[in-house]
Every structure is written in structure tokens, then in C-alpha cells.
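User: I'm preparing a small set of examples for a lab meeting where we compare how different chains pack in three dimensions. I only have the primary sequence for this one, and I'd like the structure in C-alpha cell form so I can line it up with the others. Please keep the answer compact; I'll paste it straight into my notes.
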Amino acid sequence: MTKNLINDKYSRNNNKLRTKGDILILCCGNTEKIYFELFKEKYKNYLKKVKIKIVSHKKSQPLEVVNEAIKQKIKDPNVEVWAVFDYDNESCFDMAIEEAIKNDIYLAFSNICFEYWFFLHFKNNKKSMTSKMLITELENKYNITYDKKPEAINTIFKKIINNITVAEERALNFYETYQTGPQEKISKWCSCTSVFKLTKKLREWRLANRGYD
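Assistant: Understood. Below is the C-alpha cell output for the 213-residue chain.
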């Protein structure tokens, strides 16, 4: 079952993930791609040594992103590959997660959408939310029209980045609640995100390169 596969790799005590070489981030959508590019740009003096590569897949299906990640992993086993995607449909979403874990691909998934990660920076809420609900929350909070274009995402990024540890802790707590709950399929974990795993990893690298907190 999907949940059983995911337990060991994403436990609270396994936050410091080991890396052999570069990180490759394969994104399902443009929102995720823009966000991580902004993240890298903000800390470029500390993250450039680890050579984080941002790659956006042509197709939007989570399974296609994972398949591409597996190809890249085979091509260069020293690269730590992350697949970043949202919920698409139940069978595809669960299958993508299972394939990623079986092939040692790291996951930063969001159910139902990446905007839930933004939302957790200013609200502590695990209830099931639709994409439309989340966009309304973002627009009301930051007084913007959220059209998923670079300008809007950049505005939100600047507003939320200093609250990232709060969002990570909230996401982790909700994640662990689902892990111990009755739902075996990750597609039923709504709302939920594991993006905090990737942001935490990038921040750990940044702090390691700085040499101080």
C-alpha cells in the first residue's frame, strides 16, 4: 500500500537527507518551477555550490514527471532527484508516488495543489480545500490577483519566505497525522503537502554553506 511505502523514508527522524551530488528538481507545473527558482535566487551565494537544477516537464501528469525523474536517476546515480507535482487524478497520483519511492526518487507532492504550501505560511488549517478556495485565501491575504504568473508568485514569495519554518512545521504535523490515520492512499490526504521536505533540505544546505545560523 502507498502509505506503508512512504512511512520509513519520510519520518520525522529522517529530516537530514543525505546527498551524493547535485539536486535535480523536476516540476509538474510552472508555479512550482517559479517558486523554486525564486528560492534558489534568494540564496544563490550558498546554494550554487550544490548546483540545484530546476527542470520543468512538458507534460502535467505526475506519473510523467516521475518517469522522467527515474530516467535522470539512471543517467546519473549521483544526482538526488526530486519530483514535484500536484494531485491530478486518484490513480495517477498514487501510482506516481509508489513509482517514485520504489525508484528512490524524492517527493514534494501537494494534495490538492501547490498553493496549499503557500497557504500554510499564514494559516494553520488541515481541512480539505479546493484550488479555488486556496486562491481566494491568497488573494484576500495579499490583496493581489493570483493568476499564477511570475509577478504574482514573486509577490507571494517575498511575503511568505520569512515564515517558512512555521509552514514546514505545520505541513509536517499534518503529514504525520495522515500517516497514522486510516487512509492508505495518499490521494485521500487532502489537504496535505510534502514540499516541506524539499525546502528543509535546501535550507540545510544553505546553513551548512554559511557555517552559522
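A couple of notes for your slides: The chain has a mean pLDDT of 83. Residues 2-210 form one domain.

User: Perfect, thanks.
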